[in-house]
Amino acid sequence: MSVLMDPALQISFDYCRDLTRREARNFYYGMKLTPEPKRSAMYAIYAWMRTADDLADSHPPQSPATPVAGPATKTGSDPVSAAGPTPDAITAFSAMTDQALADQPVAGPVQLHAPMWPALRHVLRTYPIDGRLLHEMIAGQCSDSQNKSVAFATFDDLYQYCYRVASVVGLISVAIWGHDDDSRVGRWAEQRGIAFQLTNILRDVKEDAQLGRIYLPREDLARFNYDADKLKRGEADQSFDELMRFQITRARDFYERSSPLEEHLSPDCRSTCLTLCRIYRALLERIAAHPRKVLQGRVSVPTVKKLAISLRGKFGK
Fold first, then answer.
1. Virtual CA dihedral for 288, 292, 294, 295, nearest 10 degrees?
2. 148-317 belongs to which homologous superfamily?
3. Quick one: DSSP state of residue 69?
4. What is the pTM of this model?
5. DSSP per residue, 178-215
6. Element (H or E) spanning 151, and its range?
7. Where are the domains of the chain?
8. For residue range 92-151, what is the model confidence (pLDDT) as tens digits?
9. In angstroms, rounded to a whole number, what is the distance separating the alpha carbons of residues 238 and 11?
């Protein structure tokens, strides 16, 4: 971030940057290519999303959060106080988000006063971010935390979840990066988010299943005669191979559908978006090369590979 007149705001942006560097993993490699002040804006958005994610995981709400009307990385622990917020922390966090959206001083439980609020308020004032997207994200995180087990009957059900926790990230990102007036940009950003989240789901399929979270639709499990109990036990057979090939093809399709996105973004942010896409696509292809490895441990893109992709994006290749 360029020099700011308000030292408190600078401290807030520094906090968001440090949190992102420490926790963002794949996203950080792309964010580093974003020019200022958009880069710091992305850090602030990530810090808010990470806080929402941690809050929902550790202190689920007593009743479902209701998103504002509207149409999904797992992020991953720092923002929420060890003492923990009140049982209605999600409601309070949602209200504090509304205050930031209204460009009002943020007030709420002391445990929720993470240093990211001034930076978030500044970003929401500066960029055309639809506030409904923030509430969709909160609702998506809550849908996980409210149920110890997760199961989706159909892909349409899974799509809604992916939209809330990942597509909204894409839609917020393009609002910050800037784009032309093509009406399809939002759709491409939505599809890119779906591609990313489907990749995450395949990477974490065994780990999630052992926690009682089956993100693969039941209709797909039935189609390939591979049940959730097998998945929890990590059993690999021909049915699993066929199921994975189907899921990988679906994810690839969403990458292809969203492929026009970069050319419609502001030129100074195309490398950011393309680098993120290349890292996640590389992860999907590593899974595709050896699908059964997801039953043995987490598949990842080596750091040296991420750095190479990032350097490629930096020099416009």
1. 170
2. Farnesyl Diphosphate Synthase (1.10.600.10)
3. S
4. 0.86
5. -B-S-TTHHHHHHHHHHHHHHHHHHHTHHHHHHTTEE-
6. strand 150-151
7. 7-129, 148-317
8. 999 999 999 999 999 988 888 889 999 999 999 999 999 999 999 998 887 765 555 678
9. 54
